[in-house]
Amino acid sequence: MGKLGIYTKNPRFYYGVIRALKDFGINFISIENIFEDLKNVDVVLSSTGDSRISEKQIFQEDPVRAVRRSFSFFMGRDKFHTIYIGIDPGPKPGIAVTSNNVVLEAFELFDVGQIRNTVERLIGDYEAEYCSIRVGNGDKPNRQFILRQILPLGLNVEIVNETGTSFPHKTHDNALSAARIANIEIFLKNGPSMTVKKRRELIEEEFRTLNNI
C-alpha cells in the first residue's frame, strides 16, 4: 500500500481521520512541512477549508468519507470504476466492500434495520461509477427484508449461494462471510482458510486487501 498523508488546519477533521484510519488499520503521516513531507505521498486528506498542496488531494468535511475516497488512489485510480457490496443476511448483517478483487472493508451491523442507510452511505462515500450488491441466500426472513430495503435504490442486486462462507461455524464472523460473498469468485476458487484467526488476518490470508496490494 502507498503512503497517505493528512494536511489540515481543522482539529476536528484531523482527529476524525485518525480514528477512521485506525479502524481501517491504515498507516499515515501528518504533513507539517509540505516541501519535505509530500515526498512519496500518494494521496493527501484535507478538510474543505484547507489549502491545496498536492494534485492528489481529497477535500472533505466528513473524515470517514475522506478516507474511503482515498482508497482508489492506492489502486492507481482517482475514482473506482466498480465496487461490489457483499451482504451476509441475518439479524446483524455482515457488510463488505470490494473493488478489483480487493477487500476494502468488512464490518457487522448492530441491527438489520440499518441496512438501507448503510448501503446508501457506502455508495455515496465510495462514489464509484458502478455499484453492484451481492446478497447471500441464507436466512430467508432477513434476506427478504434486506432486499425490500435495497431494491428501491435501483442498483444491480445478485443473490449469491453462500454455502461454505460461514466456515468455521464455531467462529462464524458475519463480516468475514460478507467479504467472501462480495468476492465470491475468489472464494469459490480458493476456498475458506482452515485456520481459526482474527477477522482481519483471515481476510488478508484469503483475499487481497489495501495492506497487501
Radius of gyration: 18 Å
Q: Could you tell me how far the N terminus lies from the C terminus, measured between alpha carbons in angstroms?
A: 6 Å
| Mean pLDDT over the full residue set | 91
Q: Could you tell me the strand content as a percent range?
A: 15-25%
Give short descriptive properties of this protein.
alpha/beta; Nucleotidyltransferase, domain 5; 2 domains; six-stranded mixed sheet; 7 helices
In short:
This protein has 7 helices and 10 strands.
Please give a structural write-up.
The protein is an alpha/beta fold. It folds into two domains: 3-75, no CATH class; 82-212, 2-Layer Sandwich (Nucleotidyltransferase, domain 5), CATH 3.30.420. Helices cover 32% and strands 23% of the residues. Helix 1 packs across helix 2 (63-70). The N and C termini lie close together (6 Å). The mean pLDDT is 91.
Which secondary structure elements does this structure contain, and how are they paired or packed?
Elements: E1 3-6, H1 11-24, E2 29-30, E3 41-46, E4 57-59, H2 63-70, E5 82-88, E6 94-99, E7 102-108, H3 115-126, E8 130-136, H4 140-150, E9 156-160, H5 174-182, H6 184-190, H7 199-206, E10 208-209
